[in-house]
Amino acid sequence: MHNKSVAELSRQLEGGKISSVELTREFLDRIKAEDSQYNSFITITEDQAMADAKAADEQRAAGNASPWTGVPFAHKDIFCTNGVTTTAGSKMLANFVPPYDATVAANFRTAGAVCLGKTNMDEFAMGSSNESSFYGPVTNPWGLSGSGKRVPGGSSGGSAAAVAARLVPAATATDTGGSIRQPAALCGITGLKPTYGRVSRYGMIAFASSLDQGGTMARTAEDNALMLNIMAGFDPKDSTSADRAVPDYTATLNEPLKGLRIGLPKEYFSDQLSPAMEEQVRNAVREYEKLGATVKEVSLPHANLAIAAYYVIAPAEASANLSRFDGVRYGYRCEDPQDLSDLYTRTRAEGFGSEVKRRILVGTYALSAGYFDAYYLKAQKVRRLIQQDFINAFKDVDVLMSPVSPSPAFVQGEKTSDPVTMYLEDIFTIAVNLAGVPAMSVPAGFVDGLPVGLQIIGNYFDEARLLNTAHQFQQVTDWHQKLPQ
Predict the structure, then answer these.
(1) Of the listed 5, 10, 40, 179, which one is catalytic?
(2) Is 405 a catalytic residue?
(3) Among 339, 356, 361, 447, which one is least packed by beta carbons within 10 Å?
(4) Which tens digits make up the pLDDT trace of 429-460?
């Protein structure tokens, strides 16, 4: 059963061919047997999952079920879950047990889905390789052998690895600068970052509030659509939530693509992309041409400024958001502080990892007197130019297509000593977050035996078109069905 999609499992449960208890037991047994290789989970909620599965079977027997009733999944450990430890991958929150559910968690609970546990992640979602977690690095299921263990991408590397290894059929994730799309690409699964404001951020531990967005990870576009159906929607508890109607994202999956206008941003097909990666992406685009789409080159002229702008804005917001972790109210507290200053200093020095400290320092500097205008304000002006680039591009095309990452999954430890090299892993994903548009990663081939992702970028609130575009590609290719050895 672990090789079936969410849609297939839902149909099997509906038809009475399997019970949620049996299904949940199978996935829990797989996690116990296999996850020592990947380290994709921080917390496994076995007892609660089995109780929820039993309740789901009773709901189905009573004829009161949603498509998700009894289907197992996992949460990225950045979503608060009532009564279940939520760490954000940090020592700072190692013992934090929220007294409430994030809206996303509450939506899955209401739908009857069975949460198996919380997945590993880069600390406070800061990272591109899932090597900054207090709970240790996650290993890509596609990179267990050869020249060294490979990274799964970050920050949602635990969710991506768990789905790729068939430990769960689907998992929630978040994307601040590529943290859904890059791990999805490196692990050979399908991931969607919705429009900013489409999914509630309430109860999602903040990194950079104007960039963070919850999203979906599963094997297929259809499964991502099923996830978004219950995750999307207005939430009065989130001041940035969009008050717009939510369509049925599965309703338009099978619409033909004849006439679809695809734009290829010339700035994303540069010398920063390896020729082998470019070949796989262009092969995928040719499949779309066979399906009746037209392709043209477009320009995002300010794309080269995205990394610089992002690494001012995101650390500045992180500096503000993470100031709450001071050892006074909740979270880690140092032993025997001498005074208040010592409490603050040692709590933060001991509780945060090196990458989080680096970003707090950068962000605090950018916001400081004398530098605010020179850095933060200028970065926000560049952000507006990047947003306008996307608005202009979508006047001529329906979707944009590009690579997700400049290369396949790299070896663990290869880039940890050089933060700038690590940051450049997000060179094709960050502009999407700055603009707030939706985008997804779809499996599109292999380079050196490692998965390659095709990035599909859409106009604001056009997730239905993105999912339709991805689904049609998956009807004529089988990259999304490939299994790690």
Answers:
(1) 179
(2) no
(3) 339
(4) 999 999 999 999 999 999 999 999 999 999 99
